[in-house]
Amino acid sequence: MSNIMKLSSPFQGIILILFVMLGINSASAAATKINVLAFGAKPNGKTDSTKAFLEAWNAACGSADSTMIYVPKGRYLLGSMAFEGDCKSPQITIRIDGTLVAPGDYSVLGKSANWLSFEGVSGVSIIGGALDAKGPALWACKASHTNCPSGATTLSFTNSNNIRINGLTSLNSQMFHIVINGCQNVHIQEVKIIAAGNSPNTDGIHVQLSTNVEIINCSIKTGDDCISIGPGTKSLWIERVTCGPGHGISIGSLARDLKEEGVQNITVRKTIFSGTQNGLRIKSWARPSNGFVQGVRFINSVMRNVQNPIVIDQNYCPHNLNCPGQVSGIKIRDILYKNIRGTSSTPIAIKFDCSAKQPCTGIRLQNVNLTYLEKAAQSSCSNVVGKAFDLVRPNSCL
Ligand SMILES: *[C@@H]1O[C@H](CO)[C@@H](O)[C@H](O)[C@H]1NC(C)=O
Ligand SMILES: *[C@@H]1O[C@H](CO)[C@@H](O)[C@H](O)[C@H]1NC(C)=O
Ligand SMILES: *[C@@H]1O[C@H](CO)[C@@H](O)[C@H](O)[C@H]1NC(C)=O
Fold first, then answer.
1. How far apart are CA 100 and CA 251, in angstroms?
2. Residues 198 and 231 in one domain
3. What is the mean pLDDT of the chain?
4. Whole-number percent of the chain with pLDDT over 90
5. Same domain, 203 and 229
6. Fewest CB atoms within 10 Å of the CB: 100, 165, 300, 307?
7. 241 with 191, same domain?
8. What is the pTM of this model?
């Protein structure tokens, strides 16, 4: 290891000197600008612009410079498309002043897993813009029929690094709005997510198998989880996010598989939940697994009329399929709930329903004040070990 370091640093020094001599540095290098209109995209919301966007992407991706793909005002009809790496360009910024719209017929996207997917890219930023996936027709199909397509995720990043999403609005996704899967160093900021409170499986932001993801200053109104945190999520930072309607912030469902990567080092700060089904939830199927959740800090949350403000549910077994009579193998430890206040819309504001096989340990409640109908609410504990500090209302059952 140290030999490699010794060899590489003089080499890096020479490259740096060359760059300085040539007057090139990343701060001064202006990005090559690529306008999607030049590739035939039409801002009329009717002409299919998929091919034009792909060609613009290929031009950006193949460029040796930092590039900016510019999408001017207007509506652009796009089918399912993949923006694939590896790219020559070290930085690709997609600056959107317009709205990207999905086809009106949901079956066109419905069979694809994703509408707009980025795969194996590095240094990609999306700035501004709106994505309108036209989900309501598919939700209506799901509400009245059984043979509807499952629907597409609006925006996904897979196996990608150094990603920024800033100032984007996602409207009415068919399924999940944004998925971060197998990524490192992802910064999501000032994102707005909007879908009906009864829209099915429209999770706001789903993160899994990813490290160093930040979600800051976002507003998420949707039908399913505000943010869902899947297996293999490490070092996730969530700050100043408002949720509701929806199902709140959820770690899990875990224990889908026997061999599952753990979730660790998760910080959730300054969140507001309004009228959500859950506030801060950890949930696992009642099934065997060697997965775990550890090192979670939930700090400074306000609950407004939340059904389950604080909940750990390790006995998740919807429709009693493939899990009755089993217990969760997921090990939950070292979870802090600090400065959590507001109102519960049900009598039980704190519920720790842990696994009989792997009790929850190191659960800490500090300065929690949750009320129900202006009275103290209740808490419920099973298979949990931990401590309460300072004021805790309802009275802790730890
Ligand atoms: C988030 O929003 C607050 C208030 O609007 C602002 O002061 C802060 O700078 C923002 N943070 C980031 C990282 O954009
Ligand atoms: C935990 O995550 C934060 C970012 O959310 C990071 O700064 C910190 O280094 C991580 N700690 C460990 C021990 O990985
Ligand atoms: C707890 O919250 C209730 C309702 O918001 C409030 O009336 C009460 O004063 C709070 N208790 C403490 C000790 O802060």
1. 30
2. no
3. 92
4. 84
5. no
6. 300
7. no
8. 0.92
- Residue 30: per-residue pLDDT: 67
- Is residue 373 lining ligand 3, measured as CB closer than 6 Å? no
- Per-residue confidence (pLDDT) for residue 1, from 0 to 100: 35
Would the pLDDT of 11 be above 80?
no
Domain that holds residue 253: 225-398
Among protein residues, the one with the nearest Cα to ligand 3's atom 2 is: 369
Backbone angles phi, psi at 172, to 5 degrees: 50, 60
Q: What is the CATH number of the domain that holds 111?
A: 2.160.20.10
| pLDDT of residue 23 exceeding 70 | no
Residue 11 included in any domain: no
Distances (CA, A) of 173 to 102, 118, 179, 297, 362: 10, 17, 12, 30, 38
Does residue 196 sit in the same domain as residue 253? no
Half-sphere exposure of 335 (CA within 13 A, CB side): 24
Lowest-pLDDT choice from 69-73, 235-239, 289-293: 289-293
| 245 and 117 within one domain | no
Mean pLDDT, residues 336-365 taken together: 97
How far away, in angstroms, is 344 Cα from ligand 1 center?
A: 28
Catalytic residue among 145, 206, 247, 319: 247
User: Active site includes 247?
Assistant: yes
Is the C-beta atom of 235 inside 6 A of ligand 2?
A: yes
- For 239, the token pair is 């700050």
Q: How confident is the model at residue 254 (pLDDT cuts 50, 70, 90)?
A: confident
Cross-strand partners of 353? 313, 382
For the chain, what is the domain count? 2
Please tell me if the CB atom of residue 150 comes closer than 6 angstroms to any atom of ligand 3: no
Residues 236 and 152 in one domain: no
